[in-house]
Design brief:
The protein is an alpha+beta fold. It has 2 helices and 6 strands; from the N terminus they run E-E-E-E-H-E-E-H. Helix content is 20%, strand content 44%. Strand 3 and strand 4 form a beta hairpin. The radius of gyration is 14 Å and the shape is globular. The protein starts with a strand and ends with a helix.
């Protein structure tokens, strides 16, 4: 299945084959204050702080695509579903 996601910061869209994803990493970022960048935080903070943003690193073939979680995007919801439905050890 092919999905298309926007990368507003880079003013582009990316279309990629979901079958080529071999790893998904989830990072958690504290939202930036006005005029600053976000700060990476802990897994525990990401699980308990509703203001923290989940950020996905998708490994697609030989490329790494960094995308923020976006519950209003159908394409990003597919990524979130894969991540959330994965068996956890």
């Amino acid at each position: 299945m092919w999905i298309r996601v926007g990368v507003p910061k880079e003013q582009k869209e990316i279309v990629f084959d979901m079958d080529k994803i071999w790893k998904i990493e989830a990072l958690y970022i504290r939202p930036p204050a006005e005029g600053t960048i976000g700060i990476k935080t802990t897994l525990n903070d990401g699980a308990t702080n509703e203001n923290v943003i989940r950020w996905y690193k998708l490994y697609v073939g030989t490329e790494v695509i960094d995308l923020p979680a976006n519950p209003t995007s159908k394409a990003m919801q597919i990524i979130a579903d894969i991540y959330n439905n994965a068996i956890k050890e």
